[in-house]
Structure formats: C-alpha cells, structure tokens
Design brief:
This protein has 309 residues and is an alpha+beta fold. Helix content is 39%, strand content 17%.
C-alpha cells in the first residue's frame, strides 16, 4: 500500500535546496566520518530522495541518501539483516555512532553506504555467471526468516488498486491533455494507440487482484522493485542488488519483474528450479496465458513500475 506522503513526492533529480554543510556536519558528528567534501549525484528516480558522493580526509568515498518525509525503518534494517545472513550481493548501510542505521537532519533522514564504483544492469549486459549469482541471491532472500520485530513492521502485499486507478484516470483524460515535453508527447501517442490493450490489462489486473487476495499463498521477503536498473555490477564484476526502499512480504513472483524472468535458465537453476515454471508457480495454475500476463503484471507492479511478458 502506498501512503499519501509517498504518492505526493517528486523525484529529486535536481539538487535539493539544502546546505551541503549540514550534511557534512551530520556525517562528521553522527557517523564519525572525516568528510571534507560532498557532491550531488543526479541519479535515479527514487521518490523524495537525493543522493551524494561524500569523500573523507583519507580519500574513502561514501554513498549518501538524503530522504525526505516518513521513513520506513525496514528499508535499512532488512538489507542490514540480509548482509549479516551472509548474502554477499547486499550492500548494508553503515551505522551511526549510536548504532542507528540513519541520522536525522532537519526534515530529512541521512543513510550512508560504502561507495561502490560500477554500472547498473541497464548500462551493461550481465554475464551468465552474474545472472546465476542473482538467482542464488534471490533464493536466499526469499527463504530468509525475519525476526518478529521486522515481521511486524514490513509491508504486506494487499494488491492495492492505487496505481490501477491512477492509470485509469490518466487514460480517461489522455485526449484532453496537451504536453510540451517531447517524451510525454511520444508517450501519450503510444498510449492512445494501445488504449484497448491497456484497458484490457487493467481489467484483468482488477479481477486477478481479487483472486490473489482470496488465495492462501506463501509470502516471502521481496525487494519489490527488482529490475536491471537495481542490479549493480562493480569494477570486479561482482553483482549487487541495490535500492531497498520498499521491501515487502509477498508471493515470490513479486521478487522478480518479467524483464528479469526473461534472462534465461541460469537464473532459475541457481534459484533451485529446474526450469522457469516452478519460480512462477503462483501463476502457472492460471490456464489462460493472457490471464497469466495480467497476473504477472499485477504481482510485479510497484509504485508505477509494471512488468509484462
């Protein structure tokens, strides 16, 4: 479920109007880091989050996330736990001097990670071995047993209709809207050409949401926004799963979007499945392939992202 605050946030691809000096002071006082400079990084499309590279007096670099608004503690507690469980593909946040995984800076929260140099899966083609590493990591994540405190606080899948309703409203007003941005003009033209397909998919998702909600399915720890952009490869070829802002307990299909599903048998074999179907067991019992498409889309949608087979 998406909170009202999250729905109203604007992606921070521009540097926020917040003094660098306050961030540096927090890094020094709360994290005990000898930071001498920081630089804003115009990366990602994460809601209400700005990221920086901070450099200490010993030339060590840190990746800093400045996050505004309500803060979900599971977004830092879970990756810390997964890393402590020995899942090497997780980069854990650093603790403050008081053992906390974030520090308050005015209306923001500051989270700090080691800075890893590399590229994401949108910028570089992953090798077969890297996809196999991803499958093995996914299996370990899905089989992680959470402590009671995290089990109580982590979000549970409810098949919230919020984004379906948003899409319906957007489609309804599409012909009455005018756009100046060339990208939006192209997007609007594309959606107009696919209007009936989108409506059909939304209708199937609506129906299948009720089907899924009525089923008693095992829920596992899911990243909720797995896609190549959140798979990070460092300069040594090591794969990491990053951006744990919205973890959730959900059927395992939520743990990998369809653009990851298409990456071949190595992911599934390293996950522990002989073929693709066992990983998609939650939807394989649906006989109509078009329904399976809608259900996979439903299971993999998160905050405006949607995968389709």
């Amino acid at each position: 479920m998406v909170s009202g605050a999250e729905r109203n946030h604007i992606p921070m691809l521009d540097k926020p109007d917040f003094p660098d000096e306050k961030i540096i002071a927090c890094l020094q006082a709360d994290f005990g880091l000898g930071i001498v400079q920081i630089a804003f990084l115009p990366l990602g499309n994460n809601m209400s989050t700005a990221v920086y590279r901070a450099v200490a007096d010993d030339d060590t670099s840190y990746f800093c996330k400045l996050k505004r608004g309500a803060f979900d503690e599971t977004s830092v507690a879970l990756p810390k736990l997964l890393s402590e469980q020995g899942i090497a593909q997780i980069i854990p946040p650093l603790a403050t001097n008081m053992g906390q995984l974030r520090a308050a800076v005015d209306e923001f929260n500051l989270i700090v990670y080691p800075f890893v140099v590399g590229k994401n899966g949108l910028d570089v083609e992953l090798t077969n071995d890297q996809w196999a590493d991803f499958g093995a990591a996914l299996k370990r994540i899905h089989t992680t047993i959470l402590p009671p405190a995290l089990t109580q606080t982590i979000e549970k899948e409810t098949y919230d209709p919020y984004w379906r309703e948003q899409c319906k409203q957007f489609m309804a007003h599409l012909d009455n809207e005018t756009f100046d941005d060339p990208m939006l003009i192209d997007l609007a033209a594309f959606l107009r050409s696919k209007r009936e397909m989108v409506r059909d998919l939304l209708g199937r998702e609506e129906r299948l949401a009720h089907v899924m909600a009525a089923r008693s399915l095992e829920c596992v720890v899911c990243h909720a926004d797995i896609h190549p952009g959140n798979l990070f490869i460092d300069t040594k070829g090591t794969l990491f799963i990053v951006d744990w802002d919205y973890p959730i307990l959900a059927p395992k299909e939520r743990g990998a979007r369809s653009d990851v599903h298409r990456r071949g048998t190595r992911v599934y074999r390293s996950y522990g499945a002989r073929r693709r179907k066992p990983l998609l067991s939650g939807i394989s019992s649906t006989p109509d392939r078009s329904d399976r498409i809608g259900l996979l889309s439903l299971c993999t949608k998160r905050y405006g992202h949607c995968g389709c087979v």
